[in-house]
Amino acid sequence: MMGEGTSKQNQSFRPIVGIDLGTTNSAVAYIYQGKPKVIETDAGSRLIPSVVLIDPNDNVIVGENARSALVAMPKRTKAAIKREMGSEEFIHIAGKSYSPEEVSAFILKELKRLVDKQLGEGKKEAVITVPAYFTDKQRKATKRAGELAGFVVERIVNEPTAAALAFGLERLKEDRHLLVYDLGGGTFDVSVVEMMDGIMEVKASSGNNKLGGEDFDWLLVDFLAEDIMENHKVDPRDDVRARAVLKEEAEKIKIQLSKEEQVHISLPVVMMKDNEPFGLYKTIARESFIKLIEPLLQETMGSVSEVLKAADLEPNEVEDILLVGGSTRIPRIHDLLTDYFGISPRNDINPDEAVALGAAVQAGLKSGALSDSGLIVTDIAPFSMGIAVLGQTTSGNVQPGHFQAIIKKNTTIPVTRTETFYTTFDDQTTVQVEVYQGEQKWVRDNHFINEFLLEGLPEGPAGSESVEVTFRYNLNGILEVTAKSVSTDKQVTVTMEDALDRSSTTAFQESLEKINSAINTKYKDIVLDEHDEYIQQNIFDILEEEEKDVSVQDLLKEAKQWRSRCTSKLKNTSDETKVQLHEGIEELDKAIASEDETALEDAIDYITDIFIELEI
Predict the structure, then answer these.
(1) Same domain, 125 and 46
(2) CATH code, 232
(3) How far apart are CA 274 and CA 584, in angstroms?
(4) What is the pTM of this model?
(5) Which of 84, 182, 217, 249 is catalytic?
(6) pLDDT averaged over the chain?
(7) Catalytic: which of 159, 214, 353, 554?
(8) φ and ψ of 456, to 5 deg
(9) Are 297 and 291 in contact (CB under 8 A)?
C-alpha cells in the first residue's frame, strides 16, 4: 500500500519537501495534486513546536511533549534555538553540550520522520527557509543542520519570498505589488514583491533577525517580575524554574490579548521564599501590553518605510499586504499597517503555514512537479557584499579596511558582478581578498565571511597591476568569489558555502562524520562518547589554533611586503622620512624574526601609521 503522496504524484519526481524551521514552531510541506500541503504530526497537528527535550534516559524528544517540559525540566529543554544559529557558543542541555546546528538537527530529524512516514523511507531533498536578514553564517548553519538531520539540502529560500510563492501560486495572472510583513517568534522581515504575468520578482527586503514574539514574551516577563519584586522583594528571573513559569504564562497572555481586551493572571505558585510558596494574581489589559511592545512595533514600521523607499514605491502603490508569522495576530499590527497603507492586510492564508507552503512551492518548481504552472520567481541579495580596500578617513588620509560593495543590497539574484582593483604599493606580488557583507563604510562594522590569497602578481610600480574580483551569488544565498590577475590570467576561486567543512582539520571532520552517523542511525544516541564530546566542546579552539598557523603565514607575507615597500620608498625621500622608515623596517625585521602573531600585527599597524602620517 503506497502513502497518499506516493500514490498520486508522478513517480518521475524526486521526493523533495519544503521546510519552515521556525523559532516557535516548524512545519514541513510537499506538493500533492498540484498544490502545497502541510504534513501533519502523529497527533494531527500541522505545526510542531521547535522545542527539544533530553529526558532522564537520554532520549531526544521534540515537539509538544518537549514544550510541556519547559517548566518542569528547564535544564533539559531548549526552545528558540533559531536565534542562536550561526553562533559558536555551545548549548547546554541535560549536562551535555551541543552546537546550535545539532539542536536544530533534532527538530529537522523529527520532520524527516514525518516525511518518511508520508512519502516513504529513503533520501529526501529539502528546501529550507530562513529569514531574509539571516547572515551568510546563519544560512550555512541552517544548511548544515538539514544535512545532519539526513536531508539533501537543495536550496535555502528567504521566508518572505516563500510566503509570496504560496500567495502567488493561486494568482498567476494578477499584476500587483505585494508587501510581505513577516513577524515570527524570533525574527522580522518585510519584503516588496512585484507580480507580473506569473513572474514574481522580489524588489527589496529589510528586517531584523533579532526581533519577534520572543521579545514580546520577555517584556511581559519583566512586567510580571516587577510586580512580584514590589510585593515579595525577590526577583523571580533569578530562579530558573520561576523564570520558565513566567515565560510560559507570558506566551499565553500574549495569545489571549490578541482575542480579548484584558486577561486575568492566576498563578498559585511562582517560586518559594522562606520555604513558603507564593503566586501571582493580576489583571493585564491589552492597552498595557501594547504600551510595552509599541517601540518594537514602531521599529518594524521603520523597516516597512525603508523597504518601500528601496523599491521606489509609495504606500498607495501597494495593492496587497500579506501577514506571515504567528505574532501578526496582534491587533495593533493590523491597525498600524491599515493606517499606513490605507488598506487592510489579507487574512486568506494561514500566517503560521504560509512559509512552509511556499517552501513546498519552491520545492515543486525545482523538482518539476509545478513545471507547468508557469510560475517564475526571482529573489534579492538581502545584504551588500564586497571586499576590504584602501579608503579615505575623515581627515583625508588613506587607510586600509574600507568596505567596497561589489553586489549591493537588494540586487536581483542570481547575479554576477566584477570590479577591477589595482596594486597599492611598488613590487606588490600578492593580494589578500577579504570578503564581507553589510552596509557600513568600514569592514570592522560589517560581517566577515571569508578571505583568501592571490599570489604571483608581476612586480611593478604601485597601480600598474590590475586584479578583477568577481562575485557570483546564487538563489541559495551561496557566494562564489574569484580574484584574477589581468596580466597573467592567474586566478583563485573560493566558494563561501560551508565554513564548517575545514578539510585540513582531521579531528573536526571525524567528529562531524560521527555526529552525522549518530543522527542517521540511532536518533536517541546522538550524544557522543567522551572523546568525541571533548572534540565537540573544543572544536572551535582546534580551529582557532589551526587558523592561527595560517594567520601567522599571512602576516609574515604582509610584513615582508611592507618591508619591501619601505625599502623602495627610501630611494627618493627626505632625511626625516628616511629615519621613520628605518624605524619601521627595524620593527618589521624584529617581528619577522620572531614569527609571533601579535608582534607581526603590531609591526604592521606601526608601519601603516607611519605611511598614513607621512602621506606616502
Answers:
(1) yes
(2) 3.90.640.10
(3) 67
(4) 0.70
(5) 182
(6) 85
(7) 159
(8) 85, 20
(9) no
